[in-house]
Amino acid sequence: MGRSLVPNSRMKLFEVESDNIDDRISWLDSEINEGKRSPRVREIASDILTVKRDDGQWEIAERDWAAEIAGAFEYVRKNVRYTRDIHGVELFQKADRTLELGIGDCDVLAILLGSILGNVGYPMLIRVISTAGPTFHHVYLLAGIPPHDPKEWIALDASQDEGPGWEVSGIQKRQDYEVTS
Description:
22% strand, alpha+beta, C8orf32 fold, globular, four-stranded antiparallel beta sheet, 181 residues
């Protein structure tokens, strides 16, 4: 079955009509790539990275890759409430729409966080997992550092009340997909 998305113009959301994981990841990848080009996302990235301390130094030092990633992660955690989709309906929404609504589930949080990090040059992986059975049921990002030649990948599950690097235990099945440029 090919990817099928049904726009709901009133809500500016997209209902996903495919159970194929590759179709869903393709849609997430597309939304992250669109979102990272958004002027509003660029403004958010700037707000995160350009805070200065009282002594005039940057709150997040230049090239402190882990701190930049943590700053973006904390922004999403503080400004978007994890909220499940409509019962029985899988919804995706654009990064800008998530900023307007302030709610979203794991894939929506991944789109927004990936858009912010992609906007400031981070390579990313989309990780899908299952902790119960063969069907994937959860998604989150991994960001690579250093950005120009990743040696380490930091897990970023913004749907959980845990910090960067945390991953759920008991993963039975997982698959990583590279976010394209």
